[in-house]
Amino acid sequence: MSTQSLDYPQKPDLRNKKGGSIQRIFGKAAPLLLLLPAMLILVSLIIYPLIFSLGKSFTDFTLGMPGQEFVGLSNYVKVFKDSNFRNSLYVSILYSVIAVTLELILGFGAALLLRRRFRGAKVVTVLLMLPMMVTPVVVGIIWLLMFQPDFSVVNGLLSRIGIDGPIWLQNPITARFAVIISDVWQWTPLFMMVLLAGLLNLPEEVLEAAKVDGASNWQSFWHITIPIMEPLILVIVLIRFIDSFKTFDAIYVMTNGGPGRATQVLSLFIYRTGLPFMDVGYAAAMSYIFLIIITIAAILLINQLRKT
Amino acid sequence: MSKVKLIFSIFVIVLIATMLVQCAAPATEAPVEPAAPEEAEAPEEAEAPEPTGFNPPKASGPKPDSFEGVELRVAMIDEEREWAFRDLLPEFKEQTGIDVTIDFYGFEDLYNKNLTSSSAHTGEYDVYQFHFPDMALFDNRGYMLDVSEWVERDKGEMELDDIHPSLQDSHMKFKDRWFGVPTHVGSMTFYYRSDIFEEQGYEVPTTWEEVLTIAEDVEAKYGDDVKGFVFMGRSDIQGIATFMNFMGAYGGDFFDPDTFEPIMDSPENLQALNSLMALMPYSIEESPSYGFDEAHVAFQQGRAAMLPFWDSGDGFFSDPEQSDVVGKWGVAPMPGARATNGGWTVQISADSENPEAAWEFLKWLVSPEMENGLVPLKPSCRVSVLTDPANSEYPSYQGFYNVLEGEPFGFPKIPPNWQMLEIAAQGVNTVLTGQATPEEGLAWIQEQYEVLLLRYDLWKP
Question: pTM of the full predicted structure?
Fold first, then answer.
């Protein structure tokens, strides 16, 4: 019996061949070269505008005006003295806290409901997710029609049960409520979807063990489900809080910040200052304060997340 | 070093570097001069610089023999009269060979588009239409072409004398130079239900106090079926345009025209706001939320007896397809005799590569043929059309002429006019929606104006 040796091609030893060093350098540089386009895009579209706007925040730059002067931190000082900024900050915080809280409660409720197996559960899930897929401007238009002064759909429904609805967008309290409702309508499905995924992945054995030990449904939910899902809840709350704090489109369409300034959130105020009002330097300073506020909120939530 | 310290250090370094860069930049950069078209660069145009840095590119030179193949892009407001221009563009192309495309925008979008593309000198549009008080901003910054020489050259062809002198001043000229042509002009006027007035024997009111008396009586006699008054009270341009009729009536103003000192908290303006507030109980309750559409719909549905509105109301209220008050309404001069005057101007971008072709387009827009052809789509800028007996069936024509002959109350024609109107609209709406007293609302507007007019170096206390 003869044996036949198999000669597999060997990996060339580049170290001892001409041109090997070039290929070695290329081999080391290749990842960097491949990353370069993405890095260039990142730098030009994210880093440069950030630094550019940071620079402008130290000037009195006005859109289209020839010349700009360095004003140091005066734009930042002005932010803290500006009652309009404080009003908008208050509106933004109120809006975000109430909207996100309602979305969490309703989203959790919907997720618990959908965890149960019933006929048509998948169809219901898809239907409940639809608002999330609508662009915010369209959400604004839909809810503007719902709360429109003359032909309010909401008031039409309320009148059927004998309630004379208010002029929603004319009263500061009801107008704030109306814009919050539009946000809740659109984003509750996100909570529902994420929390449903969490609920479906709960360790069944733990829940069953609790049941065997005599825990009620409420005790299981409060002492087992919630603690296990806490990181997930914090992540989704963090994402939505940041997102809702930046809300612009729907409010712009529904109330344009009115009545008066009752629904003028921070992003709308910054937009107004920067574009129609052309005070770019001040708008940039407010944007950075805005960024710092969101960052602080995010850090607090992340710390909480780490603790859990 | 921990990661947090590293990130913090990087942030501080970037911050300091950015501040140093801004510090090192020249205190005042050279004014950004728009690239003037070649035709506009005549050496003999050099003259002493304007005190405010006002140095727009100037149009000059003979008219070219042909415009065949020239393309123009135009930004306009998305309204009926402008749609008519679009529909007539094939005729213009046939006459001149110029191919025009019009893009339409809503009120705020058009302003933002005009401002951003002009300040960035994108050259996106050859011709811009904008709210006439914005001339102070756009012309002052050299965004638009000074067409004084061409107006002088073509004034016979344009029949310039036929354009009302008041509109020449407000919509065509800025600092005694010519920039644009007026299209889509008009003022606010006072609409009332003639059937109710006849039935109850009311005289047409000439003051806001008389309006209040009639509104009270309508409330007493018609209850909720017909309210005495309806108005545009939303926190936008229409809200402040409505309030300006009250300001004008009581001698109020935004600022002292000589010193630019804000006078929003003046007794006259307070009286004006109190007068509007007095009408609230007899107005359609939703009026503080009403804009242009809601207000005219309420009147044409017969839900209110009186409405201060733009003269375009004629078309809405006369249309049997959408109006329940056809033949039941009348129009009168604004109570207090100072109606808000509005409208649009069309100008040539300083960045246009075809300014002569654009000028042909502007002349076509305001030609006597066009102005006659567009009756009754908004009043005309031409005296001959406004006073033509053939147009007497359109009450707003003679009404607008009367406003122009009287003392129209125009929007403030200064660079931050947009800001002023937005601020005033917010302040007044805050009062109308019960969030502030008239005194508080006007004090807030005054405070904002002081900051604004100081910032623009207009008011020097």
Answer: 0.82
